């Protein structure tokens, strides 16, 4: 019988009313944790401002502030942390790591809360949640075009701070401004400049991280293996990332945006989607064209809408010349093209209107809460027209689930698969994000919509990558595997790990085994160690 299991039995016997959904944690756990923080040089005056038990009036508001998926917002079946800690300085994070380990609890780390499966703030075992939102300082150096950004910052804050310093600098990260820097970057975040500049992790120069011993390390002191691992391998498997130093990129004074909608009733729409597949990853690297495939209902008739959304790093005249030559079936007109500054294009992609000021990017609240599920795939061979037609019919029959096609090529194809843990590089035409949102409450509705997206994912099997069927870490999907951290941890980790990381999974396991051999930093899809793990309570 394992020590952790014996501890759990003791836990239950001593606190018969214990529930991880209960109103307060066992006093001994809270007291032990707080006493440990004190011993690790965190004054009581600071502890009282950053440590919250479920008895605290602010506990629920802090927990719910960065929950981005309605499935986990207020459900009686959703586990809650035993304690929430909201550090305000880096040294407090060191104490939290040390003291969570000493209390034999799991540590969950949340930066922006956008993990699609909520694993940064929920767990099936007792856990402490480390919420990084107070650590969000951003320092821009326009001379060498770099920035230090703490991981509790959101992308909107980063973009705003860059813009305030320079109108010709940017950063190639995501289009949703409320996404947290920590999870986004460490998972291999991407945005609408990836064909020109690659991923976020292709532009990371340094990092600060708290390891399992509570040490604060930078690139030099952590070593190149660990630095490599956190650039796309998911930081929460290796430590608590405090900040990244990033390389900013030069953007033109004028960029061009367009959004063009087509419907399958138009006989050329499917042909345009076929042509998009053949040109979107090969066209000028300054052009990124996302394609949304969504079911709609028009006058009681079910249909498909194909929406082409683009960012072009240049003016509309050059854009029109490229499109008319290489993608004529789009039917783009000069009137469709909106010239603007890069920061205004950030607002456009975030679905703000033309009058919105950049200060809107500082709003951390985000969109109204939806129930949602996401999945991902990668396409290496164009889907033929008859295949697209059958896919459109399937989407219509399902009713709600849709897809987003994100083109690769350009800079993405120039970087070797092993350069970072993110392996989806040369040979990828586009990535698919499967998407379903709903508003109805209850398990019946959830079961229906989850069935829809899983059905669509299954239907797409003939058209996507194989051996492995690749997936994107930042589109977290527990359907492809869950690790209970038991004796088969390595084998279970390999199931999802090869989908996310391909051959890089083995190197990630070696790094994990070196820096966290006891597997303290773990979650439902973390990187396992080489040694067999005890099943954690």
Automatic annotation (TrEMBL):
Domain FAD-binding PCMH-type: 77-251
Entry's family note: Belongs to the oxygen-dependent FAD-linked oxidoreductase family.
Function: Involved in the biosynthesis of pyridine alkaloid natural products, leading mainly to the production of anabasine, anatabine, nicotine and nornicotine, effective deterrents against herbivores with antiparasitic and pesticide properties (neurotoxins); nornicotine serves as the precursor in the synthesis of the carcinogen compound N'-nitrosonornicotine (NNN). Catalyzes a late oxidation step subsequent to the pyridine ring condensation reaction in the biosynthesis of alkaloids.
Keywords assigned: Alkaloid metabolism, Disulfide bond, FAD, Flavoprotein, Glycoprotein, Signal
Coiled-coil annotated residue ranges, if any: none
InterPro entries: BBE (IPR012951), FAD-bd_PCMH (IPR016166), FAD-bd_PCMH-like_sf (IPR036318), FAD-bd_PCMH_sub1 (IPR016167), FAD-bd_PCMH_sub2 (IPR016169), Oxid_FAD_bind_N (IPR006094)
Pathway named in the protein's UniProt entry: Alkaloid biosynthesis; nicotine biosynthesis
Species for this entry: Solanum verrucosum
SUPFAM superfamilies: FAD-binding/transporter-associated domain-like
Cofactor(s) in the UniProt record: FAD
Protein name, per record: FAD-binding PCMH-type domain-containing protein
Single GO molecular function: oxidoreductase activity
One of the GO BP terms on file: alkaloid metabolic process
Record's signal peptide: 1-19
